[in-house]
Predict the structure.
Amino acid sequence: MREFELNLSMEELEKRTHKDYLVTKKFLKPDAPEYLALEDGDKKALVHLVKAANIIEHINMQLDCHDNLEFAEFLKREIEKGNGQAKLTKILFDAQKGMNAIDTMSNKINLAKGITELPGKGVYPKDLTKEEFHRILTKMVNENKIAEVKKVLNQRSVVERSGEYLVGIDYVDKFREECHKVADELEKAAETSTNDDFNEYLILQSKALRTADSTFDAFADKKWATLQDTPLEFTITRENYEDEMTGTIMENSELKELLEKHGICPTPKDFLGGRVGIVNKKGTEALMAIKKYLPELAKNMPYCNEYEQNISPDKDTKQTMVDVDMVQAAGDVGAYRGGITLAENLPNDDKPSLQIGGGRRNVYHRQIRFISDKKKLQERLDAILDKEQHKYYLDEADHWFTIGHENAHSLGPKKGCEKLGKYRNIIEENKADMGSLAFVDLLTKLGMYTEEQRKQIIVTVITDNFLKSKPTLSQAHRVRTVMQNKYFAERGAYELIDGKIHVNIDKVVPIAKEMLAEIVRIQIDEDFNKAEKYVNDNFIWTDNMEIIAKKLQKVSKALNGKLETKLADKLAKQ
């Protein structure tokens, strides 16, 4: 049995697990009206869906860090011995779903001494350096091991050493036992679930978990993206923000050209999550209001005649969207690491379902977006926002902006932009934000928003763009926020008056359009050097940001968060 040395002192652990520093997002409870209103068959199906999601978390623990499972066992043994330090460490481990994470102040949190986060996480060999990675790939290509290199560099493989080479093992094969257990649970859920479309998806997804073939995933994703009127929500989320190793290939011009010559596209590795919920019909109806405008937005995207996009102005819009009351968020989608996912637009551009005519689906997480402490929110506004503009700040406007953000992922260049390397996700998230803001005036003109709502969205977004600290380059969602903040300030979208933000409302949308055009141009050109320069030119922490950050730090002590999943916990025991 492996032993570890705990990294955080008792004093530090007591602070980080205190309710002021570790915020709680509360998912549905066993007595929730949304759960009680379900038909019996759907209640029974939820049991199996929660169990499936929890197994997916077990898989993702291994993708996230080579040492996660052994560390979890170590904590369990120590807690049984009465080790209080281990007990508090376990709270953080469960919250961030792994040994290593980052908090809201962009501090790296390592729960065991000597074990830090690796660029290749748990999907590449622990001792593999960037230089050796590039050297081995070059050798393999030059020796005509093209098929093997493609397996190493696709999104669904775990990479291991094989003598002097590397091999890519599909995660369905690598985690065969766990994947089959997930498939079993999905099939059991399909036996009792009341919705035929949902059941068809579950069966397709179960098949994809039994065979290491991306074609099966494509069929499952294609069906999942059509789901609109179902009582339940289940998704195996697959996103690749965590892999910092694969993208380094774009920094090696010789290797990059060699791979292009052989038609090999290095795609960052997927990390897996399991989302379970109950579809909220009222919330979903509100989401659907934007769907009829999507073709018009597609037509107004910058350089729209130069690329294909998922939303076509002259075809049916393959975009479904649901608002979900959350039961469980396991694995990657539920990891609270300085923040947590509010919504997702899937499948991503690198997924094969989009190549066979599939669409995309947006899922919004109701319990995660809810603000539980209105008093604390008011304290924040009093500290950082011009008093005259408080009337325009509305937390619900942030949800409207998020709706625009998720739909904007379906706009713009359809291809995955893998050639942008480590900047790919930063650029894409920036595009989604600017797409949401750039179309606020158009959507107001079309009748989606009132003039009052337009002002609320603009003021709320600019206000929320300020962070408590400068992020690291690996935090794509936060890096793009800093970039936007600098860009907006330089062009007069806001100013600080007596140390508080004053938004110049009518300037924001035109500036967002400028930035959107610049971002889309980079995506079209797929030029790594242009992307790098754009990020470096704009990812600058300014004096304005530091002034507001100091105020935010005084208002909120929160460093991280956790999920409370009482209904899921109960169902998992059945």
Summary: The longest helix spans residues 40-64. Residues 447 and 496 are 32 Å apart (CA to CA). The two ends are 30 Å apart (CA to CA).
